[in-house]
Amino acid sequence: MALNTYIPAALIVLSAALSMPTLVIADEELPAVAVKEPKVGEKVSESVQRYLNIERLWAELEASFRATRKLRVLSRDQEVIADIREEQQFAQSDLAKGDAAATGELSNANYLILPKVQDFKFYRSVKPLPNFDSKYTRQDSGLLQLTAQMVNTTTGQVETNFDLSAKFATSSQIVNTKAGAPDSTHFTAMAKDVAAQLADQFVAAVFPMKVVQRTRANQ
Fold it and tell me: Can you tell me the distance from the alpha carbon of 117 to that of 59, in angstroms, rounded to the nearest whole number?
């Protein structure tokens, strides 16, 4: 029986697509950004700061930049840097092969992000339920407002300031006690929200969309 030489068009298209070169950007060519530890503004009361998890907020900010896949995120956590330094010192010792953890090779950041918590609220509203003993209506709510400076590390110029905000409010519930505070998951959700906002705005600033101007002849 003669060999069927018919090749489906889809296979031809697939073969052509696979033969085309793919544009790959090396990690070293991506802009490097470092997020400094968030500071707390004077407007944030001391009584509510115990619910302000700076480490969680910092982690979410860094994670949001990594998720863009358009940036190299460098740690500026002093504990992390100390651990790296310890490993480098071990690499230089007689016990190690010395094939990794070279000193003087830490990357520099092209941009610094300087976040600051300007306002933070995290509270529980409890009201007695009329005509019922030991019954209350409870509602949790919160607010997280940040500003973040984007600093060019070469020029020292503040490229832009970002304003970020997130909030939550639970539905009213009937409970038997008025004690307690909002669940920490609400803070984590707000931290993720402002972190995503920051990453989106940062990417838009570093990689602005190019607008192509057309003539009347659409050329």
Answer: 15
Q: Give the pLDDT confidence of 155-174 residue by residue, as tens digits.
A: 999 999 999 999 999 999 89
Q: Which residues contact 80 (CB under 8 A, 6 or more apart)?
A: none
Measured in whole angstroms, the distance separating CA 51 from the mean position of its chain's CA atoms is: 20
Q: At what angle do helices 54-67 and 184-206 cross, to 10 degrees?
A: 40
Alpha-carbon separation of residue 161 from 126, 130, 149, 158 (angstroms) = 37, 48, 5, 8
Enter the pTM of the model.
0.75
Question: For the domain 28-206, what is the CATH superfamily, name and number?
Answer: Lipoprotein like domain (3.30.160.150)
Using alpha carbons only, how large is the chain's radius of gyration in Å?
Answer: 26
Domain edges within the chain = 28-206
H helical segments located in 5-51: 9-19
